[in-house]
Task: structure prediction
Amino acid sequence: MADAETLPRTPPQILGPFYPFMHTPTDSGDLTNGGKAQGTVLYLSGRILTDDGQPIVNARVEIWQANANGRYAHPNDTTTQPLDPGFNGFAVTHTDSQGRYAFKTIRPRAYEVAPTRWRPAHIHFCVDSSSERLVTQMYFKGDQYNESDSWLNSASRKDLLIVDPAPATGKEAGAQAVTFDVVMMRA
Result:
C-alpha cells in the first residue's frame, strides 16, 4: 500500500500524574457502576487499527479519567473538588475481531493544575498490541481550555485527538456518544 493511502497514526500523549496504579480497573466496560455515577453519561467506542486500516484484534485498551467534578480518585489529586463514590474512573477491555472496543463512562470536567492554568476535559488511553504500546488522550471539541493546553497543542496532529460528542441515540435522556479510533503501527 502506498504511503498516501496509510492512515495517520494517533499522536502519543503523556501518561499523566494521575495514572491509577493503586486501583484495579473495572473490566465490565461500565465506569458508571450501573448508572450510579454523577454527570453526563458518555458512550465511548471506536476501533484500534493499524496504519493500513486493519483491525487489531485482542488489543488491551485501558482508560482513566477525572470525574464529572474534575477530580481523579488518586492520592496526588489534592484539589477540593469532591470524589464521586458511584464512579469508577479506571477501566480495561480488549478489542473484538473487528478491532472494536466500547465503554460507558461520564463526560469528565476540566480541572485546575495551577493558578490560572487548566487542563481541558480529556480521557487517557493506554493501548497495548503485539506491535506497540501507545499512551494518548482524547479531548472534546469546543472545550475552552483546548487552545491553551500545552500537551494537546504539542501533538503533531491534535485534530486526531479531538472528538465531537453527539446525542446517544436510543440511550438514557441526555447521554452523549463519541467515536475515537486509535491508529497504531503494523506488527
